[in-house]
Amino acid sequence: MNNLIKTETKIESRRYIGSKAKLKSWIISLIEKECRGESFLDIFAGTGVISAEASSVFKKIIVNDFLYSNYVCYQAFFGLGKFNKNKLNLISEDFNKLNPKKIKENYFSRNFSNKYFSHETSKLIGHIREEIEKQKPILTDKEYYVLLASLLYSVDKVANTVGHYDAYIKKDIKNNNFNFRLIEPLNVNAEIHREDANLLARSLEVDVVYVDPPYNSRQYSRFYHLLETLTKWDKKKLHGVALKPLTENRSEYCTVKAPTAFADLIDNLKCKYIVTSYNNTYDAKSHSSINKIKLEQIKEILERKGTTNIHKKDHKFFNSGKTDFANHQEWLFITKVYG
Fold first, then answer.
1. What's the whole-model pTM score?
2. Predicted confidence (pLDDT) per residue in 306-320, tens digit
């Protein structure tokens, strides 16, 4: 087994709408108390922090998310495969020695400079992404994913945003002091999927399923379009002020169809326990922040499936810039499926 890369960049070191990084201990402690089994499916895994925490409790971990950038991060943190620590450190050192003044313009700098990043930082990011692709033939799959995920996490540290890419902050950007920092792969052997959650539910049978769907109208594929573009590196034509590609991967959970989609998911899950996260954002000033499924609807749908306990915790939510909501609570529904 490889020695882990020694670095400060861990799986939770990322800004992400709906991240459960600050709630992971609370969530897993309740799961330990009320659920039994050996397999755990995180069907809307997001950053993957809950799967990482659950790995200390369950023998088998399955992670799923439809965003390609998240899939790459799962492969880097959880995926099988060999990697050479010294090799990655040397590549990282070379990246950090780059002089942006000597780097040519590239796809990333032409689109995103002086918007999401400074001009020099944009050139660095685009150049590094090209270099990772060029070096792919001499990298193992694991090494390739570690470098890509490291770039995504490093980019997040200097982005001129409030934590997502639906828009950038309208201000002059000073040099971002970009630093390429390697992520730290985890000693977790997870099964990794990139599928529609409602379709995946029909094909897997596990003990515990953790369900943390999108809550409001903010489409994750639009909020994290820049990371998707950087990861896929398909160099598509970008549109609008926010420089997004054409719309893809729209989730019904962000629309009026959310209750129907949630009911379909729950009805088709094959498991012993369902653990569902949601919150009480129904009176936010920003209309796009208001939850799409009522708590009463969640409770009704889950109780058709099994006996459900509800837990609540005060929690300061991720503020995307316009949302203002007092007395915010995270709700955790734990359902023991009827046998």
1. 0.91
2. 999 999 998 675 544
